[in-house]
Write a structure and sequence with these properties.
This protein has 431 residues and is α+β, with helices and mostly antiparallel strands. It contains 15 helices and 24 strands. The structure holds adenosine monophosphate (AMP) and glycine (GLY).
Length: 431
Amino acid sequence: MHILLIGNGGREHALAWKLAQSTKVSKITAAPGNIGMSQEPKVSVEPIAVTDFTALSDFALANAVALTIVGPEVPLVQGLADHFDKLGLKVLGPKAAAAQLEGSKAYAKEFMQRHGIPTATSAIFTDKNKALAYLNEKGAPIVIKADGLAAGKGVVVAQTLDEAKQAVNAMLDEALFGEAGATVVIEEFMQGEEASFIALVDGVHCLPFATSQDHKARNEGDTGPNTGGMGAYSPAPVVTDAVQKHIMTDIVEPTVSGLIKDGTPFVGFLYVGLMIDKNNQARVVEYNVRLGDPETQPLLMRLDSDLLDLCEAAVNGTLANTEAQWKTDSAIGIVLAGGDYPAKGSNGEAITGIEQAEKTACKIFHAGTAMKADTLVTQGGRVLCVTALGSDISNAKDIADAAADIVDFNNKHYRKDIGYRAVNRLDQDQV
Ligand code: AMP
Ligand code: GLY
């Protein structure tokens, strides 16, 4: 089977690596792909942009592509799945109407209200003065979100009223996020521990993936600006069996049935960002309509099942009869970023040590890399994700930390505390 995989980040490298292990997959074309993907067996790359729908479908039709798997949200929100579906091409990813769950935070909030899904109380504004009046009424801490896609940067968790007002002014007055910030959602600050919950959905049924957590803040101790994610691990100990049951019953299943009721059934990976409070009650922070990056990297290292079988079951509507097997081991992914990320990417810095690092039990997924002459160099904010499997989270972390130290480039930045919550819980359990 020939698979077309859309995207070029660490998440897509991990998808390509895992799909290539399927005996049913003969060839994977990644569009546009990245250097790391092009080095995997069975994988070649085509320089087609993720939003060039005509070029992508022309390629799929001309090359007998059996299934297209979409990594990032932008083409989904713009209707790539609708375009492929009209041409009779099989595609894994929601249509534009369902992808609004990620494409518009205001839409997502109204959806949750409509279907009784637990989330922070909120209000939606396009008028600056009304937004400022609401802030005065609610006080801080409070959270301001640009409505549209902003690559993880359109959220301000304001600790003071001043910060909150600045964020509202930046979005509604100074158009800092352009169209994406012309509408803002202002919501209650939720206390608790975050977790990422990902389920594969076939329109009706959902197959929960293993649990995971990521670290969105740039710096150690979860401080500094929000990023796309600085590291992730699986499993997430905060999601106990009882919490998972609650998440499925009260959040994931009502989301999937709400989408059906609204006439926008969802096929693809549904990612629910959750805040879990001290009473183990989960509320939705955000929806994503695709796999998480970097959650996918550790998750797929733990997956024992054939990923293609799962993807096909989702597209064919047979997930009810499908199970996924996961290793009991823990996995962790540590992102190596350019020192100025998220403000600015790294460019043209030579990368060393990958081969040596991969001699240990770890796999290095590429995100922002390029070849300059014969040298692998940086090209982007998040450059690599060093991912390791271990007997427990502490063991996995030790392996990944050592590899993250070996791989090097000028002005490398990474967090040495990825997974600290899970490690602390493990230490407590062992006392
Ligand atoms: P989002 O893009 O909506 O996931 O927001 C990015 C990050 O901001 C989340 O991962 C949280 O760490 C934080 N955040 C967003 N909304 C809230 C909230 N209502 N309460 C507390 N933290 C939040
Ligand atoms: N790691 C968070 C995300 O993929 O949005």
